[in-house]
UniProtKB/TrEMBL annotation:
Enzyme superclass (EC): transferase
Protein name: Class I SAM-dependent methyltransferase
Species of the source: Dorea amylophila
CDD domains assigned to the protein according to its UniProt record, in alphabetical order: AdoMet_MTases (cd02440)
Transport is among the record's keywords: no
UniProt GO MF annotations: methyltransferase activity
Methyltransferase type domain boundaries: 46-145
Record's keyword terms, sorted: Methyltransferase, Transferase
InterPro entries according to UniProt: Erg6_SMT_methyltransf, Methyltransf_11, SAM-dependent_MTases_sf
PANTHER family hit by this protein: HYPOTHETICAL LOC100005854, ZGC:194242
Enzyme Commission number: 2.1.1.-
GO terms, biological process: methylation
Length: 203
């Protein structure tokens, strides 16, 4: 396994290192993504593919009276996210669980927001996973997707060759899969200079 496979599923020491690198490296993208939504302070949030847990920290800052759940299928990511958010977990404002986005381990209609930062590239079948996100969202709930790669930059092909199972999507492909999964109102935001995309979909 090459080191960059840890972007897909952090494992071992290399995985711990990768989660720390992702926390730092994705910060600007996350700030930009968050700027495209307004958040209720008492919201219930699920951050899918929570990695090193820094976006959980950001959500907690926006939802002082709410609750934030982080989910990742990597044990290393779950442990790192729990460590970073230990105080909030102790206060009952946060929990971090191991889980698979193609079968989210929560009942229907329990979250106001679901976020996916730099993670849909690795999801096993977009429609199925997006349907699961739709299922756990309340009516009127928001799904925020943030990707550093918008599918239009040829330089990104090196990553799909380097990382097994990675697929970079264009906004059109993401929108089509979201519609298929039952999302109605879909807005797209682009940072063309950096080839970033953010999609905000409402149930």
């Amino acid at each position: 396994m090459n080191f960059f496979e840890n972007t897909r599923k952090p494992q071992g020491f290399g995985g711990k290192l990768m989660t720390k690198m992702m926390n730092i490296g994705h910060a600007k993208l996350s700030q930009w993504g968050f700027s495209n939504i307004s958040v209720n302070s008492d919201a219930a949030v699920l951050d899918v593919g929570c990695g090193g847990g820094v976006n959980i920290v950001a959500w907690l800052g926006k939802c002082g009276n709410g609750h934030v759940t982080g989910m990742d299928y990597s044990k290393v990511s779950v442990a790192e996210s729990q460590k970073l958010n230990a105080a909030a977990i102790k206060q009952g404002k946060c929990c971090v669980v191991q889980g698979d986005v193609s079968a989210i381990p929560f009942p229907d209609a329990v979250f106001d927001y679901v976020s996916a930062f730099e993670t849909v590239y690795f999801w096993p079948g977009l429609e199925k996973c997006f349907f699961e996100v739709n299922r756990v969202l309340k009516n009127g709930g928001t799904f925020l997707i943030c990707n550093e790669s918008d599918g239009t930059n040829d330089a990104d092909e090196k990553w799909t060759k380097l990382i097994d199972g990675m697929k970079i999507y264009t906004s059109d492909q993401l929108i089509a899969a979201l519609k298929e999964a039952g999302f109605t109102e879909i807005k797209t935001y682009s940072n063309t200079k950096n080839h970033w995309i953010s999609i905000v979909a409402t149930k």
